[in-house]
């Protein structure tokens, strides 16, 4: 190889000859390439039956623990969601068949309990109020002080009123 630096530009004929030399050397293999077949096909006929028994092949599929866990969890979630969906369907079917008489019959015990509780509360209140009456006599002093502070800056403002 010629590693001598070129100090002058090449002429067109020299540049063409150098380019052809580089291209020819680049695309020429160093060693000859041997071609090998990459596949083989056996065209002999397969007999319809034979005396060789089939060979047992063991099933050695390995499932990771996380994959089995996800599978079990997804089955559980699916079953749970199905149960929730069935329950919601039953509730909504029940609500779809609601009538006024049905609502009154369901709320009647609660209304009765509320009425009894109100009557008992009123009786207790009347019993307490009739026993003692406190009357306070004396001067009353009332002081009212209002402090207004307002911080208004820019877009946001806040006014705070303290009444004491």
Compute the CA-based radius of gyration: 50 Å
Mean pLDDT: 80
Global geometry: elongated
- Element pattern in H and E: HHHEE
What structural keywords apply?
single chain; elongated; 2 strands
In short:
This protein is mainly alpha-helical and 164 residues long. It contains 3 helices and 2 strands; from the N terminus they run H-H-H-E-E.
Describe the protein in words.
The protein is mainly alpha-helical. Helix content is 48%, strand content 10%. It has helices at residues 12-26, 65-96, 100-131; strands at residues 146-153, 156-163. A two-stranded antiparallel ribbon has the order 1-2. The longest helix has 32 residues, at 65-96. The protein is elongated and about 125 Å long. It starts with 11 loop residues before the first helix and ends with a strand.
Task: Set down the secondary structure blueprint.
Elements: H1 12-26, H2 65-96, H3 100-131, E1 146-153, E2 156-163
Antiparallel strand pairs: 1-2
């Amino acid at each position: 190889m010629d590693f001598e630096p070129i100090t002058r530009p090449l002429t067109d004929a020299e540049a063409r000859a150098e380019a052809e030399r580089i291209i020819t050397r680049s695309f020429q293999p160093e060693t000859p390439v041997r071609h090998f077949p990459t596949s083989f096909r056996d065209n002999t006929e397969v007999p319809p039956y034979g005396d060789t028994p089939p060979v047992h092949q063991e099933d050695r599929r390995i499932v990771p623990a996380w994959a089995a866990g996800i599978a079990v969890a997804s089955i559980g979630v699916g079953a749970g969601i199905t149960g929730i969906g069935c329950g919601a369907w039953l509730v909504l079917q029940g609500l779809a068949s609601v009538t006024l008489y049905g609502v009154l019959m369901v709320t009647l015990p609660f209304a009765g309990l509320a009425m009894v509780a109100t009557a008992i509360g009123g009786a207790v209140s009347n019993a307490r109020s009739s026993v003692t009456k406190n009357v306070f006599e004396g001067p009353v002093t009332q002081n009212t002080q209002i402090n207004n502070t307002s911080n208004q800056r820019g877009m946001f403002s806040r006014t705070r009123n303290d009444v004491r």
